[in-house]
Amino acid sequence: MAELITMPKLGFDMAEGTLQEWVKQAGDQVAEGDVIAVIETDKASVEVTAFRSGVLRALLVEAGTVVPVGKPIAVIGTADEEIDLAALGVGAGPVQAGKEPSVPAPEVPSPVVPAPVLEEPPPGRILASPVAARMAAELGINLREVKGSGPDGRIIKRDIEAYLQEREKALEKAPPPPIPTPSYQPAAEGYQVEPLSPIRQTIGRRMAESKQQAPHFYVTMEVDMAAAMALRAQLNALLPEEEKISVNDLVTKAAALALRQFPRINASFADGEIRIHEQVNIGIAVAREAGLLTVVVRDCDRKSLAQIARDTRAVVGRAREGRMKPDDMVGGTFTISNLGMYEVDDFIAIINPPQAAILAVGAVKRVPVVAEDDRVVVGTRMKITLSADHRVTDGAEAARFLQAVKAALEEPLRLVL
Questions:
Q1: Is residue 265 in some structural domain?
Q2: What are phi and psi of 320, to 5 degrees?
Q3: pLDDT tens for each residue of 309-332
Q4: What sign results for the dihedral spanned by CA atoms 123, 128, 133, 136?
Q5: Which residue, among 345, 385, 208, 361, has the nearest Cα to 285 in the 3D structure?
Q6: Of 69, 95, 121, at which residue does a domain stop?
Q7: Are residues 311 and 370 in the same domain?
Q8: Which residues belong to the active site?
Q9: How many CB atoms lie within 10 A of CB 4?
Q10: How many domains does the chain have?
Q11: In this structure, are residues 101 and 75 in contact, taking their beta carbons and an 8 Å threshold?
Q12: pLDDT score of 305 more than 80
């Protein structure tokens, strides 16, 4: 039976996305999970996969089209069935197997403007992979200057890297700029204008809304990480390089266990009500050149520490390479933001709406501490700060939640049981 594939909703406030590229074409056989298209949101490029096996019978929108969330973009069915687009609500008349579908063009108002005079025909479409297009956009590279080495001349990641190497060599060979003539007149104050990228616009809008609408409060606690770091070293000695456990993996597992004890922290505030989530899906903040992105690791309370490490590494890798899946960005119930790798002692984070809380994690540091016998000794400490929505929880509950996170990290065998 034929079914519609629609533009997915890949975020709390996503209203539309751009269909960047069709990976499969009409008439192609697809299996469940195959990538059929790449869409561009205001945050990232995301792969759209087939939710069932079958034949891609019709493509309802062209590449480069901005499509509202929920609008049909394709039809999937069997190879020999007759498909009635009118019955599906997307066109007129039946589609016979092996024939192109008849899909009406969208109605677009035609403003009365003078026709432009073109001295030469517009340049053709540039073929580039989503990763290469993302890298070029972030690095300010004109794709028309890059030679593609992929199929049919498609520009791929290694072509962007080769272009950068050649550009650096050219800059090294270029003569030094002339020494400017000193001026005795006072220099005018100036500045450079940097337009906001789509992702920066989204971050700014959502964070401003969060601070304006959610009454934030903050609770900070210091954690003794000596036992956790010792356990991590023992585990990593037994694991291959690609499966090693990070400090953030330890914090993720500890937070997941604590969220089971305090479900009101694992909640959202939306439409004037508190929604306590049954799943513990933790969002991990990922820093990229274009801006911050949050990816989601699901069911962290039910997964082993090693599985959390593998899943986190996979989803963060896809985010940085610009090949995310739809599930990578949605469904988060709590967020962790870790700046420890930048040697930040502690900080406060803004809640990711509509979630009720976010945990800010600082660096693990060797610091002087006072022992029980009043001696000053060297300790291993890390500071964590919870930002919480006062509409959902309060300071006492937030403090008890942090105590649970602290207990799990200071007795880290809890994380592997």
A1: yes
A2: -75, -25
A3: 999 999 999 888 877 887 888 899
A4: negative
A5: 361
A6: 95
A7: yes
A8: 390, 394
A9: 17
A10: 3
A11: yes
A12: yes
